[in-house]
Amino acid sequence: MISHLLYPVLAFAVAAVYFFSTFVRHLVATHILLRHIPGPRPSSLIWGEEWLLYYSTPGIHYVRWHKKYGKVLRFTGAFGHQVLSITDPKAIKYILSDAIFDFPKPKGVRAWFKATIGEGILWVEGREAHERQRRTLAPALSQSSVRSLVPIFYDTSAKMASQWTKLIDNSHSDEAEIEVTKWAGRFALDTVGRAAFSYDFDCLSGGPHALAESMDGLTNNENKTSSFYMRALFWVFPSILSIGDKGEMIRKSKQELENIVLKMWKDAKVVGDVNSKNLMSVILRAEAKFAMHRMNENELVSQMRTTISAAFEPVSAIIAWTLYELSLDVRLQNELREEVTAAGSGDPSYDGLTSNLPLLDAILNEVLRLHPPILENHHEAADTISVPLSEPIAGTSEMCLVIPKGTILEIPVNVVQTDPNVWGPDAEIFRPARWLERKNRGIRHEREILAFSEGPRSCIGKTFAMCEVKALIVTLIRQFSFTCSHEIEPFQSFVIRPRVKGKGASSLPLIVRKI
Fold first, then answer.
1. Percent of the chain with pLDDT strictly greater than 70
2. Contacts of 74 (CB under 8 A, 6+ apart)
3. pLDDT of residue 39
4. Whole-angstrom Cα distance, residue 204 to residue 210?
């Protein structure tokens, strides 16, 4: 008779053998179906190209590979799993728009979202479930709602500018070196708290802040070897997200955010403000109007966590890269300052921000083009599926790509947005004037900017994000000038952040001078 103590061991062994055999069968089938797709030979038997990608300049190998192998290539991830990298425009349109629900997020990505923010709109899959959640959120992030939130964007911007003025005054000079990435993140948190939930996180007070530090710490240490192992393996073994110090950090950050979100939700129900246009009021109205279809508390908490997280990482990165690029070009700063001054002494309205500042638009478009917060748009084939192509796979005459079920594919945004056939021979150069030139010549290409994705699953908060960034830049450029005395490099955490070259965590110290 087998001892009761052996049953768990036996069950684990059977499960492990089953998983391993299934995994191997999938690898073999994928290799057979994709063997005609060109790509680099794996640089590591265990890690494939993951080590190379992780410890190199973000996106540099995608550029090199696509230049060599064409618009469709394959490379190897950890333990031999195959990844397709696609820049073909017809395939991108099919994947992101025409058949988006046939290409869900990979299991590892969904596990990350579930572990960090819950089962919100970034996690959910399937047309019906996604559209239900999107319908709930969309009214609060619509153009008309954002229009009413612009005064909050300026108010938060003024608070940050005031803190910077204090730092300069305390330096007993007319300038000070300010760590921009810290303030960009705190601005993003305070703005989404007030604008979306009528709740002041008070991150811009200048002192320590548990929420800001917890969210920043979750992804701002990606240079560690432990983070590499987690990033390389979660595509194949999503459960690794719950293991070790990183798993504990994920749980702590999620709990910190959940505690605040629950308090916000309970306070909102007591106040019962259903007349505002912010997200909290929209949810309260939905609760009252659609009792049969209301979200349960777990779903509500997940949506609120998702909104805060999505408004923190990408927005703070966009702000940091914008100020960095401005710091490198005094002439561009002066031109932008002149444009803002010419717009009037008051704060530009929503229409002023979106229509009357063409140079600011050009600068932000160029930042998004060269510094997309999310470097890769990842998906997974829900079933074996044929994808149309605009040109044959290199070395073949095939005008379609058959993707085996379960294959992970990624769209390298940086490659698409620096294609010299679209952007010219200076595609790698930061030159905002290109947008003004293109507008004057009536040039418009599809998928010019993929930083917010496109199609039914494009970023629902794009208008909100761009307006708050514009309000901040308008506020800061009126009061300060910026220079950078450090060599800055990009590094990949959850988003692409700037850091002083050779350092570990994100860092962007700029010399900020009062005008």
1. 91
2. 34, 37, 38, 39, 82, 83, 84, 85
3. 98
4. 12
Residue 509: helix, strand or coil by DSSP?
strand
pLDDT in tens, 306-338: 999 999 999 999 999 999 999 999 999 999 999
Q: Is the dihedral of CA 105, 109, 115, 121 positive or negative?
A: negative
Distance CA 475, CA 479 (A): 7
Residue 5 has pLDDT above 70, yes or no: no
Domain architecture of the chain: domains with CATH: 1-102+387-412 (no CATH), 117-372+417-514 (1.10.630.10)
Strand-pairing partners, residue 337, are none
Is 459 marked as a binding-site residue?
yes
**Structure-derived torsion over alpha carbons of residues 427, 429, 431, 432, reported in degrees to the nearest 10:** 70
Per-residue pLDDT, 15: 47
Q: Contacts for 96-100 with beta carbons within 8 Å, 24 or more apart?
A: 96/377, 96/411, 96/453, 96/454, 96/455, 96/457, 96/458, 97/454, 97/455, 97/456, 99/385, 99/387, 100/455, 100/456, 100/457
